[in-house]
Design goal:
The complex is a heterodimer of chains A (489) and B (180). Chain A has 17 helices and no strands. With 489 residues, chain A is an all-alpha fold. Chain B is an all-alpha fold and 180 residues long. Chain B has a domain of 81 residues: Orthogonal Bundle (Serum Albumin, Chain A, Domain 1), CATH 1.10.246. Chain B is elongated and about 45 Å long. Chain B starts with a helix and ends with a helix. Classes of the chains: A mainly alpha (489), B mainly alpha (180). The interface between A and B is large, with 55 and 53 residues. Chain A: Its main location: nucleus.
Chain lengths: 489, 180
């Protein structure tokens, strides 16, 4: 992939050289025909034809969006003025107008010719708007116009006017105009991506690789177109070499182109701008063809319409007949059923009448009244007997209730008597309790007296003992003195 | 030595009054307990008396002789006096009525007494008793009317009896069919 990209870059450099030469020729034509409007148209055609060559070879390697590719290339340029213009060009049309003023101020040397071109470009924008071109296309076309001015100013310094070269350019323009019919807007977008490879930035290469995978199917078609254009470009290069003759000039031009990659974009933009009117005309023709085709289709549809209508009418005419026949048959069947049901009803009604008559006869014959009378008599007797028995039972119950009442009264009397007895007994009990208390008191008193007597007795006994002891001692004392008297003798 | 002797004496002297008091207490309690027992016996007697009439009052069957006599009197009246059936089938004399009524009542009472029912009140048995009496009344009345037709002595009575016999034939056949 990298090798292919390098080879494509080299080819792009060669193409740029050719483009620059053609651009210088265009400038010469512009100078010769300043007053007329036809000169501007011719310039546009040249730019469109040149842009065709540039667009397709670049598309070989790098498909994708133009906007993304456009910005990084600007950074590589040396001149500050060009940078300002190109950055602003991406913005709205109002910004572009301001840039146009800046161009006038900057380029004093070529003020006259540039001013005229600017004046003519403004109506281009109006025509495009009238042509109902999309806003995106307007932006691109306006950008291309301003780029053309810059590129033309730059080239005029290095190139001199040559009559032979102008003639050859005219021939080349004819060939390119014939080819422009096959061109689409896509090459313009691809054109911007090509310089990325020449700048040699690694990040951009990665992005391109990813884009290539996405657009594989598109690349095959573009390769075919590229091969056809490549052969044409080689022929042109041969012709240019023959007429120039000076090898030194060609070598110097190549070096300039290689050093400044931005110019290639400028030339591309210029050619793309000139290409617009042809593409617009072609688009108009295509639109007309589409409209005509649509009208033809409409006429065909109108011609075809009556046929299905006839078929529909036929179907409408045919379809109801069998339905009607079936409905009529159903109605007839239903009527028959109704008649049958009516006859059945009549028969049943007759049966019902017969049954009613038979029931009436049976009633009269059986004599229900007698049976009713007997039943009533039975019920009467039953009721009477039950009444008697119930009444008797009630009387018995009443008598029993009376007995019970008497018993209750007797019981009450007994209860009263028992209560009276209880009262008496309670009184007696109270008396007995009182007596018991009295007795207890008496016992207490008795015990007290007994204790006193006991004390007295004990005291008396002790006294007597004391007296006895004294007596005994006296007796003993009398006995003891006798032995003493005997001893003295 | 003396103090101890005094204490012993005191302890010896105390028991007699306690024994006396205990005897008095026992004498006090005995009459109350006897009276209470008498109360309990009285209450139980009252309860028994209350239960007996309740049992009697709840049962309607079997009826007493007085009720049966009352039923007999009613039957005799219905047979002897005029009524719808008497107008149709004729009335009976008092003597015949009494005999017929007794037979009917005895038979019905027998059937009812033989019947067994789960009800303790005897209401169902009473209903059966009444139905049996009613059936036998009708049978007896019809039989008497037929007999009178056979024994007819008066011409007017004969004509009436003949009409009655014609009328009786129908219901008799109906009864047979109904029985079948």
């Amino acid at each position: 992939m990298d090798l292919e990209s390098e080879s494509s870059a080299l080819e792009s450099v060669d193409d740029n050289v050719l483009i620059q030469q053609s651009a210088s020729n265009v400038c010469d034509d512009g100078r010769s025909l300043d007053n007329g409007s036809c000169s501007d148209e011719s310039v546009k055609l040249l730019s469109t034809s040149n842009s065709v060559e540039l667009g397709k070879p670049m598309s070989f390697d790098s498909p994708g969006d133009g906007g993304g590719a456009y910005s990084p290339v600007l950074k590589g340029q040396g001149l500050r003025k060009w940078r300002r213009i190109r950055r602003d060009l991406v913005k709205d049309t109002s910004a572009n107008m301001e840039n146009s003023k800046a161009l006038k101020r900057g380029l004093s040397g070529v003020a006259h010719s540039h001013g005229k071109q600017m004046q003519f470009q403004s109506p281009e924008v109006e025509q495009e708007s009238q042509g109902s071109v999309g806003s995106v296309n307007m932006l691109k076309s306006s950008g291309d116009g301003f780029d053309i001015l810059g590129s033309s100013g730059y080239d005029s310094r290095f190139v001199a006017g040559v009559g032979f070269s102008a003639g050859m350019d005219l021939e080349i323009d004819d060939d390119r105009s014939s080819k422009s019919s096959t061109v689409a807007r896509a090459p313009k977008v691809i054109r911007y991506e090509k310089p990325m490879i020449s700048s040699g930035q690694g990040g951009n290469i990665r992005v391109e690789n990813s884009k290539k995978h996405r657009g594989e199917s598109v690349d095959f078609e573009k390769e075919n177109s590229y091969s056809s254009l490549e052969s044409d470009s080689r022929k042109q290069s041969g012709r240019m070499m023959d007429y120039n003759g000076e090898n030194g000039e060609t070598s110097m031009r190549k070096d300039d182109a290689g050093g400044e990659g931005g110019e290639s974009i400028n030339t591309d933009n210029r050619y793309s701008d000139e290409m617009d009117p042809l593409t617009e005309a072609i688009n108009g023709f295509l639109a007309l063809q589409d409209a005509l085709e649509k009208e033809v289709q409409q006429f065909q549809e109108i011609g075809n319409e009556p046929m299905p209508q006839h078929h529909e009418q036929v179907s409408e005419a045919n379809s109801p007949h069998p339905e009607i026949v079936t409905l009529v048959n159903n109605v007839e069947q239903l009527e028959n059923m109704l008649e049958e049901t009516r006859s059945m009803l009549e028969v049943k009604e007759s049966h019902i009448r017969d049954l009613e008559s038979t029931t009436n006869q049976s009633k009269h014959s059986w004599g229900g009244t007698e049976i009713v009378v007997e039943d009533i008599f039975r019920q009467k007797i039953e009721a009477e007997i039950e009444y008697l028995i119930y009444s008797r039972s009630i009387d018995n119950l009443n008598s029993q209730m009376k007995l019970i009442d008497e018993q209750e009264s007797l019981a009450e009397e007994q209860t009263h008597e028992t209560l009276n007895k209880l009262g008496r007994v309670q009184t007696k009990a109270a008396n007995f309790t009182n007596r018991a208390q009295d007795l207890q008191n008496d016992c207490i008193e008795i015990t007290g007296t007994i204790k006193k007597r006991a004390c007295k007795i004990t005291s008396y006994v002790l006294i007597q003992l004391v007296l006895l002891s004294t007596v005994v001692l006296l007796l003993l004392s009398q006995l003891l003195p006798e032995p003493d008297t005997v001893v003295p003798t | 030595m003396a103090e101890t002797a005094e204490t012993i004496n005191t302890t010896i002297s105390s028991p007699p009054p306690e024994s006396e008091s205990s005897t008095t207490i026992s004498a006090m309690t005995d009459p109350t307990s006897q009276e209470a027992a008498s109360k309990d016996t009285d209450l139980t007697k009252e309860a028994e008396s209350e239960k007996k009439p309740g049992g009697i009052s709840l049962r309607i069957w079997p009826p007493t002789q007085k009720t049966r006599d009352a039923v007999l009197n009613r039957l005799i009246e219905t047979l002897s006096t005029e009524s719808i059936l008497s107008k149709r089938y004729g009335t009976l004399k008092s003597d015949d009525a009494t005999t017929v009524a007794k037979l009917i009542e005895e038979e019905a009472y027998g059937v009812a007494s033989n019947a067994v029912s789960s009800d303790d009140d005897g209401i169902k048995i009473l209903e059966l008793y009444s139905k049996e009496i009613s059936k036998r009344m009708l049978e007896s009345v019809k039989a008497r009317s037929n007999a009178s037709v056979g024994n007819g002595s008066v011409e007017d009575a004969n004509t009436d009896a003949s009409e009655v016999s014609k009328d009786d034939a129908g219901p008799a056949s109906e009864e047979e069919k109904s029985e079948a």
